[in-house]
Structures
1.
Amino acid sequence: MARAFLFVLDSFGIGGAADAERYGDAGSNTFGHIARACAEGRADREGLRKGPLFIPNMLSLGLGHAAKTATGFSIDIGGKAQLASAFHGAAQEISSGKDTPSGHWEIAALPVRFDWGYFANRVPAFPAELTEAIIREGEVPGVLGNCHAPGTEIIERLGEEHIRTGKPICYTSVDSVLQIAAHEVHFGLERLYEFCEVVRRLVDPLNIGRVIARPFIGETAASFERTHNRRDYS
């Protein structure tokens, strides 16, 4: 049987979809913004890089042409346009939502035709009845966080309290997700996985796309770091 290899540049878009404004992403174009910043000198870093974006291999595969197809304008990447040596094109996702699983499902020919559930950007972010159920059925003394936050920042901010109290750090983002950070030793890696399985069941009625285990190590805010033992429950 013939095989195909699929390589994904995660979070590297070449133009926003028609519903981008719905998710606060109007005008999104990661490749275009990077290329423009390089062309204008805003990405120059002494001893690291300087000048227009230089990606000859990607351009030879048709990235520049695909970007023009998607956005309608050429991106200044320095020098003359390069002919592509590979088939190329641009596609717009038809799935609802902007989360990672929707994109992965659609790549595999299974577009998401329904809306995922999301947690509001407020404190607390989770409904009270959900938080109570997580504490009760997860058999923990409470939870920390309960808000929108970047993963590394919230671990640095609440990691020491987590170690002292045994309360897992629960947080979310603009994606349909509930992430749970816990110390691999003080809380326990297997216990974290079991806890995430409980939470996965509890958020099913809310149509939440993912529950993610985010284990970390270290003893102080200055030394905390996430490990490679992440696990997603979709």
Note: The first helix runs from residue 30 to 39.
2.
Amino acid sequence: MTGDGCVIQATPSSNKKKNNKKKKNKGGTKKKMTHDQVLAFKFVSDWVFLDHPSASSSSFSSSPSAASCVVDDFGVQKPVGRGGEKLLFELHSHSKFSDGFFSPSKVIERAHINGVKVLALTDHDTMAGIPEAVESARKYGIKIIPGVEISSIFSPRGDSELEEPVHILAYYSSIGPTRFEELDKFLSNIRDGRFLRAKNIVLKLNKLKLPLKWEHVCRIAGKGVAPGRLHVARAMVEAGYVENLRQAFARYLFDGGPAYSKGSEPLAEEAVKMICHTGGVAVLAHPWALKHPVPIVRRLKEAGLHGMEVHKSDGKLAAYSELADAYGLLKIGGSDYHGRGGHNESELGSVNLPVLVLHDFLKVARPIWCNAIREIIECYAEEPSDSNLAAITRFGSTRILKGGSPLSCGQDLIDHCLPLWLSSQEMENADFEAIKLKLSNVSVTQGGIQVLVET
């Protein structure tokens, strides 16, 4: 893969008017990148292509100056020249492991078709789909950010009228969260509450003379998936009680609606603190859906919130951009893709984030992820157990294959993996050197069997 910092070919003056006309017909104009945008693009590109360093360097070897790169009116980098590529991030997507319609593999395949280079799978209250997403992404050269969208509730003390559901996006390093067991238990409790909530919704629908079957909802959700309102809505459509999903929500399932039921979600502040505690970046999802965004943002910022969604497929929302600025929050966005289709759903990769936005996101995220990676491998160095080795390989960013020629020691494992996760500058850390020294005499085993680690 190559970046999109391509050289603009000189155009003969006789064709200048013709080319300008073509640009106008396509909508918008192309501008040369500023110096800051060029540096931002290189910073982002270097991270995207950590495991393909030649691709990253080649994209800039022939275009080191601002004059050789272009962006559109919104500061989004554009491909120019043969073989040019955008660094397209998709930071909000769902699969069948929550309320999406497609498997993680199908989501990745569709993302590839749409030109996505980095994808965060952010299923509701579960990270179970991440290993499949990582495995599928290998085939297409897509970088996966392990993520999750946590369901929570904002409940101001003494003011029940302001209580409302809030969703928090969490973004983790390539090897996932620290203290994974704590996070998994936290998410499991939410999923258990989703089961009870969905059952209560079905009971309320039954009382409203809509004899929807619980088994029908569970069949749509799939084995092991905690049903949500979308699964109930799909069952209602299939049973013929409503014409479409929109009608199901508008008539019965909207917040406070006749069939609405609360779950057992944690407080939004607790969700943010858990994300920070487990080495993640916490971002408020779709704030435009909130009734009272200002007090929510204020409270969550105090809890450690890093950013909020501001960019949508139809552009940046000025009011929420100003709110993010007021509280010093990152401004990002994603399609919130579920695969349900229809004109109301944004396609994967449709939120084309400006290069400076991507730079700011990674500038905050990478130190957090670097510390998380250090903590995870440090645990393995302190206690080279199967469980601590599994923490490194949990999401499949590093695979362990039994048999073959084993690594000579744990230091080889770290030397092999760190360049895939961190930049050379991030690896220049005394802590990593100390960890490698501890692992120099540790044999890499799983279940007592020496293994070959493959990435």
Note: Confidence is low (pLDDT under 50) at residues 1-27, 56-84.
3.
Amino acid sequence: MPPLIDPRRGDIEDDASSTKVWSLASLAGWVLVEISLPKLLLSWLLLVGLPCLLLGVAPLAATAWLSTVSRTALDAFSGVAPFVALAAALIVAGVGGRPAFRLAERSFWSLNALAVQPSFVLCREAMRHFVGRRLSLWLRRDGARVGQVTAIAAAVLMSCLAGAAAWLAWPHSRWIGSWSDLASPLTLLGASFANSVVLFGAYVACGSLAWGGADAAMGQPVTLDAYDPEPGCKVWRVAHLSDLHAVGERFGFRIESGRSGPQGNARLTATFEALARADAAEPLDLVLVTGDMTDAGRSSEWAEFLEALETLDPALRERMLFLPGNHDVNVVDRSNPARLDLPFSPGKRLRELRALGLLADLQAERVVVAGPKATFDATLAEWLAPHAQALASFVRTGRGKRGRDVSTLWDEAFPMVRLPATPDGLGVILLNSNADTHFSFTNALGMLPAEQERRTTAVIRAHPEASWLVALHHHLVEYPRPTRSLSERIGTALINGSWFLRQLKPAARRVVVMHGHRHVDWTGRCGELRIVSAPSPVMGRPHFWIQRFGASGGRLTLLKPQRVDIAEPPRMAAPGVGAAGESVT
């Protein structure tokens, strides 16, 4: 008799966070019911409320200080005391002015990243999803032209809404303050928030028009119609793997697919076996793994991934490069999408530093850390060495006396760069495109920091003859194909992907962007910039691609790739039970 309940086949608990089983609306409803309201309120105050307050109070504090200085300066000639007061005010400005300005600046860009840019992307993608498809059918025009129209329409809509918000908040704003305002904190609070609304309303009203115009003017994504001809020179073979999603249990399922997807790590093992066979048949120059090595970034999952990696030949492992995906660092709780981390809790930093330490173990001597001016003073191993003790202590305990030593390590570690072997060789830039989210429900969002972009473009400019693979986890632009739901467009987006694409445009001839994330097998271009999206050999159809590159006339050529099919492992079954549940003798 077959068992009534077989835990090795999973149950409804394994589907708790699955987007393949539940709709986005269902998961959102679950989040609203289960979320901790005190933690949500505190997170909102720290991430949104406090930056709004600091930004809004900045002009009031600045004008109050200027008023004090001007009065003191006029009285300075009437005695020693006013002169001393003026000197003290100037000293305070010299010591605290720069930190205060940086605090206001950080508040502005924090709100820009948390609210402004996501709102613009939501509006743009919603317009493209609901209006763009209908316009394409009605006008019988190609999707690229409709994408340009909807980008401008979304920009105009956002500009009008932001302008209206600024206009409504203007009567409640105040721009000249005095120290007596501290006696009425509620009035000061209201004026500060009104100031923030006016500032951001004006910024978005103007900025959205610029963003929309830039999106419309840039090359729209199109599927690549032909590969470059075979060159008569060196060809680089790069195996592109992504979204391997190692789980920590033999019978474990993935967050995204639940019981409808693969179980255990048999597909991961089969992928590495196929990789080894492909390398044995014709040696690979590189193996690029663009994120989501694990399913939730837990220690047990990293252990399983490393165990699978150990089966490969050491010479092949020496040619592998890795970068983090959202599942490696941003999943707070794999079984509860309603759980969130407080901004000051150690959970997120622990996942980041765990990933950083493991990336260092995997590729520390093969990559260098790019400095602000494209300086390459140290390999990743050398760069991390002064912080090794603090990092290990934090990973073990979640705290440490030298916590400041590790607080910025994650952000400063990227981009990691594999330098070209020759001046005209092929280099690789590894980016961290994961948004700074604290919520399981929004773990898939991406955001590329401006500092990473500056360092990336500096690296490319510093090597004018080299060709570059720019690797990240998230997709830069939405694929030029219909989507089934809006959640596919906005729930996994790289918020500032269009902006980053525009920054790469001057070097587009020498650059190919490679990413994963959506498990979509696609090769296309935006203008001259070529983009390669990798499928997931674990979560999707069992195959991956060996991309082939050449160099001709100062241009990185994208050649016809080689497909590597993976033998589908048998679906895991309980001992003594067949695939359909019948007894096996």
Note: The domain at 222-565 is CATH 3.60.21.10 (Purple Acid Phosphatase; chain A, domain 2).
